[in-house]
């Protein structure tokens, strides 16, 4: 992790790792390779015409970063350098940022000189670049680097190896300087060091680029390509090095799978070998410099592939493949190309408009789902102009030969050396023709059918089932509410009204480890995907087997086992476990621990497991099955997730992870969230043997019908088969939903990506077993987790208990006396309703006390706070009046589809009477409500919501609002769309939503005009144009990083931001989303306040929260945390 | 919480339409059970505010503003820990960033949206006769990509003054030349015609309610119109009415969640007509993949020149069918393509019309199945009512 100068260190809830950026990207090139200054000049003009896609900080002169890459302007440098330059191509030129302090600068220069000489180059000299910082912003000035250029002769280095050696020297210098811990070294940064390209960039606004670097206006400076980028980041911190382009690419978008990509790259680094590098190969480690932006990381990965011998187009097609799996029309050899490369590299997934340039070629590529705009023009003067939008240069219409856009997953290429422009079909055809990829795949790729059939079949013994279920914490409620619907309908159950039970760490019940983890979801900086309607981009395919050295690919690289679903039956598991094919030898590790030695025994067993796992890998086992079969009175299961993640990270640490695949055989996992976690922390496949066995028992116990309309009573096994199939199908669908929520489309990239946040586990525990996952309020540790496991185990194996007893009924989903606490139990509801109907303040106080008590009984985080006296109390009559306070209150957004007209209008009238605000929810509003009733009541909702379905959002609706609320996510199901079934679309609702009554209405998961932060700014601008008097509000759901998003929202000029908790919601949502996505508002709100203040963005935005605030105490706590 | 005050008893049945207290249901009978009154809600919020006031008095502050972000008033209550939660540590929640005293910790100023620089200010001035007296006006302007969200402020003005129905068709006619910025004609109101010679970017006609948008290339352009881009991605998103004619290709997600606009285009990218619930879309060229995904209403008519349109569709919710010469849609289609030709000068439209009988056979109608069921039911019902009246 490098620290960024200019960016504050992690503090409080703020973590610089959550920063995002986005932007406009573009280039202009002369296809025939003809160089001119006009190209450079117009490149800068493109930049200036993309200004509205960037953002400014608190100081209007502070930009987020802008940059320009051109070919090395040889003739110009020859004239301005006070030393001789060899022929073009024989020397390398670098653009380097240094600290202003000369001691540190000299030290950095010395290191870079040394490493360049070390690879065989000769230093020609350094050149001070003239810069003019007089009109850049205060923030940018505060950490302005000294910019210098270095020129080196290739010396003994072959021309063909010059780029590789410059790369090696730079890597060595970076590593040495990073490890040297010189004061001020953070500012050292090599923008570019190449014999082909040079990069001018900085923490600048577009129009500051050529005033900061005056030489860019020099007519002698020529290039055939000018490649530019304008950045919009979610912060105001000056980070010069994060301006784009990077050494090869600039990117408009967001890599959603970054964590997994970095982990996987780290795992495979140990296998690197390259003919030209020999032992120097180890100096390339770390390949990816963590702590920079997602684009910088992708640039690191691409650079590695390019300097070690792949072309730009080849490397990009490997890292950002199109959706080839579902594409029937793909040519066989092209499909072979993608399939071959899929076995060695997982997609870097997310919205992406990427332009890459190496000085000889320019390549542009769009992500598989086309989530960023990319337009280009080709002119009769052989010029191509490419940008995030059309019209960035003024070209007379008669000169334009073609106007195109880049389509999803497609590429274009300009070859400046041959003077060719190539389109996707041609580029991929050429890439695929380089090797017989399709026949490599058919020869080497292994499918399940190729493995021998399982020798032994396990016969499940039903007798010990009860005890097993208990030791894994099964409840009747889960079986009835979760598993049965999955088995019957093939999909996850749906529920409503959010959740009001305590988070795991606050619960006094024994919770499975899974409950401490919350799913992350995409908000604004990248869109969630619709896994149902955009299924063509989704895939559950995985590859099992040992990875190989990706730097020297051969046919055998694709000798991997293809698995098309991660949930495997007992038979498939036996196939894998007993596989003895060369390179695919399986073995089993038992993840049980000694139940009678106290909780410490768990840690002991974990340590032993790490050693065993490593030994098995050393012994050439490539499929490690982690199994918790065999639970008995002496042996208790380690939480599967803990064993898995521990082993996964241990193997990464010792550099052996990529040599094996981890498969889980577990009695514990049964719902989608469990499976998502296991995959997210390193499992390739999961065999949920007890869940499958439980389905059988459920038939016997009558919890699942033993027959349905299509089967006969004597075909019980067929029924079971069908239920099993449905259940596995439901998990698959649920998994697609979980990762599409984060904007990820393939399981391959989701695997190991750890897209979760922990609530309630302590630092020691997470650092050791779940490194890289945020956990911000401390909490339980290994001891407590072990204790919870033992609680379950003791319940299961205590001897005095009646063997015929029932399973625990469970009370997570519905309230039950003596069961799990629910904040809104029948007593509380009755108290409140009585109070408001009678108008009795005394009764309200009883309600309030009851709720606060419950909060304290550990239902909520805020229940754990107490007020600290700071001042003397003041007399009540000096405090602002009730009438001022109620104006701050709003009701939640509930659409007229989900609640009745009567309820909706009652809320509106009430809020209008007291001067508060009610909310339309999604779905429009009846214009008859815009004018007051005879008695003076107004049924108009002051807040009009704009959600992804845009139902009923017309100019008339927009102008009749005091506040326009853009709903990015909702607490109950962040990152998911919704559906109003046809039977709920009455005549009236159909009229309000401009739809035909009776026809189902679907709300997409994302706003289709918000795929990134600059898109949000655009929608805010649109709404503000329509109704300049309304405040624009953006509603977010609490999760790690929400503060950073809120900073972007403030920079996007929203007047208000709402941080909702995970627990709200009336609408129908999958049960797992209600329970497992999003976090309490207390954390998100505090993070938002801290981040906005750090950025000096708090002063221009109102922060609100919305998350089951019930009492005066809740309101005060929300205010104190920043609302 | 507010829902509970009007009667919700947390049955968690919202998704089943069986809410017994008439809060979360559309069922007429159950809605009769609704007993909530505004007074109840007012009482709740008043109690809540009173309680807040009393707590503020105890804390020694006079206004809520004084409390915003002041975490020093909070600490963790150690008394209520138990075996599992004792490791909790709220210090990160309670951190106050160390910043200079002049950095605001609550809102003290507004946002600058730069609306004063919008071309629409000029439009509103020039449209005064239309806005005030519904007189026709005609406006000519150049436009470029940095002119974003064109026509929207004017539309807001119309909606404000003239309500949902806006102005009569063709009241304000705006002719533009150049490349329009994003959100061209967003939330367009009834009565505005936008005609652009050049090209447009993403989000054209987003949320448009009425009026007409025409975009066509410059006559001097040497390229073939229907083979080149004319508008960007996510065009006509959530539109509820009006007409749009584009003489060229559109990008991804054309007509996404359209519920009322009639649009003609000469080619689209992937995911065309996604989530569409109403309106009509005519495509005179090829579409991208995954056409009509989640499309529950409205119609699309696509000229399938290579007989591969079926493979580009997402078949989950729709039927594809040919259009017979005597189908009433055939004439409608010919009419709308004629209008497209007249308004844009599209050569492709002219070619299709010149060979109409043959071309018609290549058109495929995309008909959402649920939509068809509902339309049939309605027709049957109307028929029955007619019988009753006449019988």
Query: How much is the average pLDDT of chain A?
Result: 89
- Poorly predicted regions of chain B: none
According to DSSP, the number of beta strands of chain B is 11
| Helix residue percentage of chain A | 25-40%
% residues in beta strands of chain B: 15-25%
Query: How many domains is the backbone of chain B divided into?
Result: 3
> What is the overall shape of chain A?
globular
Structural class by SSE content of chain A: alpha+beta
Query: What structural category arises from helix and sheet content of chain B?
Result: alpha/beta
Q: Using only CA atoms, what is the Rg of chain B?
A: 28 Å
Proportion in β-strands of chain A: 15-25%
The proportion of residues forming helix of chain B, as a percent range, comes to: 25-40%
What spatial order of strands do you see in the largest sheet of chain B?
A: 2-3-4-5-6-7-8-9-11-10
Strand line-up in the sheet with most strands of chain A:
7-2-8-1-13-12-14
Give the overall shape of chain B, derived from the CA principal axes.
Answer: globular
- The number of helical elements of chain A comes to 34
Q: What is the CATH topology assignment of the largest domain in chain B?
A: Pectate Lyase C-like
Strand count of chain A: 39
Please sum up the structure shown.
Chain A is of the alpha+beta class and 1123 residues long.
Which terms summarize this structure?
heterodimer; A: 1123 residues; seven-stranded antiparallel beta sheet; five-stranded antiparallel beta sheet; B: 391 residues; alpha/beta; Pectate Lyase C-like; 3 domains; ten-stranded mixed beta sheet; 11 helices
């Amino acid at each position: 992790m490098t620290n960024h100068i200019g960016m504050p260190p992690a503090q409080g809830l703020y973590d610089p790792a959550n920063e995002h950026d986005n932007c406009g990207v573009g280039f202009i090139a002369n296809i025939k390779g003809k160089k001119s200054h006009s190209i450079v000049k117009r490149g800068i003009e493109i930049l200036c015409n993309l200004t509205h896609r960037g953002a400014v900080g608190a100081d209007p002169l502070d930009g987020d970063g802008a940059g320009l890459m051109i070919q090395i302007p040889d003739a110009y440098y020859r004239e301005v350098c006070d030393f001789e330059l060899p022929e073009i191509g024989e020397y390398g030129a670098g653009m380097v940022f240094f600290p202003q302090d000369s001691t540190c600068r000299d030290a950095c220069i010395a290191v870079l000189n040394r490493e360049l000489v070390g690879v065989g180059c000769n230093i020609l000299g350094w050149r001070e670049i003239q810069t003019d910082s007089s009109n850049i912003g205060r923030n940018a000035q505060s950490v302005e680097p000294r910019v210098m250029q270095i020129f080196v002769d290739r010396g003994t280095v072959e021309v063909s190896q010059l780029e590789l050696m410059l790369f090696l020297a730079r890597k060595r210098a970076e590593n040495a300087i990073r490890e040297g811990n010189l004061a001020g070294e953070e500012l050292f940064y090599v923008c570019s060091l190449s014999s082909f390209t040079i990069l001018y960039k900085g923490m600048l606004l577009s129009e500051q680029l050529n005033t900061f670097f005056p030489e860019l206006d020099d007519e002698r400076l020529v290039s055939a390509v000018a490649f530019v980028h304008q950045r919009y980041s979610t912060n105001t911190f000056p980070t010069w090095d994060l301006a784009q382009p990077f050494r090869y690419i600039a990117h408009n978008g967001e890599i959603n799978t970054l964590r997994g990509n970095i982990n996987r790259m780290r795992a495979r680094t140990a296998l690197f070998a390259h003919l030209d590098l020999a032992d120097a190969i180890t100096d390339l480690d770390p390949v990816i410099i963590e702590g920079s932006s997602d684009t910088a990381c992708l640039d690191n990965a691409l650079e590695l592939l390019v300097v070690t011998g792949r072309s730009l187009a080849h490397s990009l097609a490997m890292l950002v493949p199109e959706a080839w799996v579902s594409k029937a029309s793909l040519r066989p050899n092209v499909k072979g190309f993608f399939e071959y490369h899929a076995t060695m590299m997982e997609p870097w997934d997310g919205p992406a408009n990427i332009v890459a340039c190496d000085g000889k070629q320019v390549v542009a590529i769009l992500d598989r789902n086309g989530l960023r705009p990319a337009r280009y023009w080709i002119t009769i003067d052989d010029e191509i102009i490419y940008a995030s939008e059309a019209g960035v240069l003024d070209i007379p219409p008669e000169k334009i030969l073609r106007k195109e856009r880049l389509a999803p997953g497609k590429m274009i290429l300009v070859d400046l050396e041959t003077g060719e422009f190539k389109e996707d079909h041609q580029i991929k055809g050429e890439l695929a023709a380089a090797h017989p990829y399709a026949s490599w795949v058919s020869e080497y790729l292994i499918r399940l059918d190729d493995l021998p059939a399982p020798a032994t079949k396990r016969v499940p013994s039903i007798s010990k089932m009860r005890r097993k279920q208990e030791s894994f914490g099964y409840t009747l409620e889960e079986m009835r509410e979760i598993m049965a619907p999955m088995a019957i309908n093939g999909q996850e159950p749906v529920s409503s009204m959010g959740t009001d039970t305590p988070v795991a760490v606050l619960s006094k019940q024994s919770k499975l480890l899974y409950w401490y983890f919350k799913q992350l979801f995409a908000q604004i900086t990248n869109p969630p995907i619709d896994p149902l309607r955009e299924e063509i981009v989704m895939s559950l395919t995985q590859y099992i087997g040992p990875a190989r050295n990706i730097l020297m690919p051969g046919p055998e690289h694709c000798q991997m086992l293809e698995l098309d679903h991660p949930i495997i039956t007992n038979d498939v598991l036996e196939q894998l476990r007993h596989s003895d094919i060369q390179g695919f030898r399986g073995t089993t590790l038992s993840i049980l621990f000694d139940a009678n030695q106290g909780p410490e025994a768990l840690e002991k067993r974990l340590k032993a497991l790490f050693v065993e796992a490593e030994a098995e890998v050393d012994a050439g086992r490539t499929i490690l099955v982690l199994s918790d079969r065999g639970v008995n009175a002496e042996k208790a299961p380690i939480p599967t997730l803990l064993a898995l993640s521990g082993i996964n990270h241990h193997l990464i640490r010792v550099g052996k992870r990529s040599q094996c695949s981890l498969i889980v055989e577990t009695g514990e996992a049964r719902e989608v969230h469990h499976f998502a976690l296991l995959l997210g922390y390193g499992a390739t496949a999961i065999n949920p043997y007890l869940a499958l066995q439980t389905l059988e028992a459920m038939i016997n116990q009558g919890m699942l019908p033993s027959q349905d309309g299509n089967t006969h009573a004597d075909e019980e096994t067929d029924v079971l088969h069908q239920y099993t199939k449905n259940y596995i199908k439901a998990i698959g669908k649920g998994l697609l939903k979980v990762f599409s929520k984060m904007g990820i489309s393939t399981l391959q990239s989701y695997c190991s990506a750890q897209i979760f946040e922990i609530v309630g586990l302590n630092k020691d525990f997470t650092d050791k077993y779940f490194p890289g996952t945020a956990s911000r309020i401390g909490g339980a540790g290994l001891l407590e987790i072990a204790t919870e496991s033992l609680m379950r185990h003791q319940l299961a194996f205590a001897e005095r208990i009646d063997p015929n007893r029932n399973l625990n009924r469970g009370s997570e989903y519905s309230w039950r006396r003596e069961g799990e606490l629910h904040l809104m139990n029948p007593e509380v509801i009755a108290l409140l309703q009585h109070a408001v109907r009678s108008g009795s303040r005394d009764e309200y106080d009883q309600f309030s006390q009851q709720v606060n008590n419950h909060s304290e009984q550990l239902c909520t985080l805020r229940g754990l706070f107490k007020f600290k006296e700071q001042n003397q109390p003041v007399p009540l009559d000096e405090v602002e009046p009730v009438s001022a306070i109620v104006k701050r209150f709003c009701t939640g957004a509930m659409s007229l589809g989900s609640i009745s007209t009567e309820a909706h209008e009652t809320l509106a009238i009430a809020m209008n009477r007291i001067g508060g605000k009610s909310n339309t929810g999604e779905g429009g509003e009846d214009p008859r409500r815009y004018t007051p009733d005879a008695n003076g009541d107004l049924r108009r909702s002051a807040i009009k919501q704009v959600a992804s379905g845009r139902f009923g959002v017309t100019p008339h609706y927009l102008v009749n609002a005091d506040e326009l609320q853009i709903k990015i996510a909702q607490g109950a199901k962040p990152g998911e769309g919704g559906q109003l079934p046809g039977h709920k679309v009455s005549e009236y609702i159909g009229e309000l939503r401009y739809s035909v009554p009776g026809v189902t209405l679907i709300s997409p998961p994302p706003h289709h005009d918000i795929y990134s932060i600059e898109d949000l700014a655009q929608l805010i601008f649109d709404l503000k144009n329509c109704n300049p008097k309304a405040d624009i509000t953006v509603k977010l759901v609490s999760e790690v990083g929400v503060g950073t998003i809120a900073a972007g929202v403030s920079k996007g000029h929203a007047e208000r931001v709402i941080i909702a908790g995970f627990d709200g919601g009336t609408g129908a949502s999958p049960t797992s989303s209600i329970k497992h996505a999003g976090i309490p508002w207390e954390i998100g709100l505090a993070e938002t306040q801290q981040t906005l203040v750090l950025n000096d963005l708090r002063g221009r935005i109102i922060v609100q929260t919305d998350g089951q605030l019930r009492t005066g105490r809740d309101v005060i706590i929300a205010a104190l945390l920043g609302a | 919480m507010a829902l509970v005050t009007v009667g919700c008893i947390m049955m968690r049945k919202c998704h089943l339409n069986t809410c017994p207290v008439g809060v979360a249901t559309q069922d007429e009978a159950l809605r009769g059970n609704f007993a909530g009154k505004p007074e109840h809600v007012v009482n709740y919020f008043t109690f809540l505010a009173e309680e807040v006031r009393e707590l503020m008095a105890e804390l020694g502050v006079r206004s809520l503003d004084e409390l915003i972000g002041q975490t020093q008033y909070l600490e963790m209550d150690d008394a209520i820990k138990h075996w599992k939660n004792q490791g909790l540590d709220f210090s990160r929640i309670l951190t106050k960033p160390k910043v200079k005293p002049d950095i605001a910790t609550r809102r003290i100023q507004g946002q600058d949206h730069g609306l004063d620089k919008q071309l629409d200010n000029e439009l509103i001035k020039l449209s005064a006769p239309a806005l005030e007296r519904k007189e026709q006006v005609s406006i000519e302007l150049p436009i470029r990509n940095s002119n974003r969200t064109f026509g929207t402020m004017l539309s807001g003005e119309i909606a404000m003054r003239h309500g949902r129905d806006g102005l009569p068709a063709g009241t304000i006619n705006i002719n533009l030349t150049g490349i329009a910025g994003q959100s061209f004609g967003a939330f367009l109101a009834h009565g505005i015609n936008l005609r652009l010679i050049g090209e447009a970017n993403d989000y054209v006609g987003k949320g448009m309610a009425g009026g007409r948008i025409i975009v066509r290339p410059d006559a001097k352009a040497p390229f073939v119109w229907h083979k080149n881009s004319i508008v960007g991605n996510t065009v006509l998103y959530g539109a509820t009415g009006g007409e749009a004619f584009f003489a060229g290709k559109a990008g991804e997600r054309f007509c996404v969640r359209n519920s009322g606009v009639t649009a003609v285009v000469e080619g689209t990218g992937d995911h065309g007509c996604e989530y569409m619930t109403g309106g009509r879309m005519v495509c005179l060229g090829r579409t991208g993949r995954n056409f009509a995904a989640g499309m529950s209403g409205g119609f699309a008519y696509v000229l399938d020149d290579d007989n591969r349109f079926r493979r580009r569709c997402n078949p989950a919710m729709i039927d594809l069918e040919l259009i017979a010469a005597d189908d009433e849609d055939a004439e409608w289609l010919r009419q709308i393509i004629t209008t497209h030709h007249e308004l844009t000068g599209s050569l492709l439209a002219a070619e299709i019309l010149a060979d109409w009988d043959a071309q018609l056979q290549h058109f495929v109608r995309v008909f959402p199945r649920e939509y068809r069921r509902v339309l049939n039911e309605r027709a049957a019902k109307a028929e029955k009512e007619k019988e009753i009246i006449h019988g």
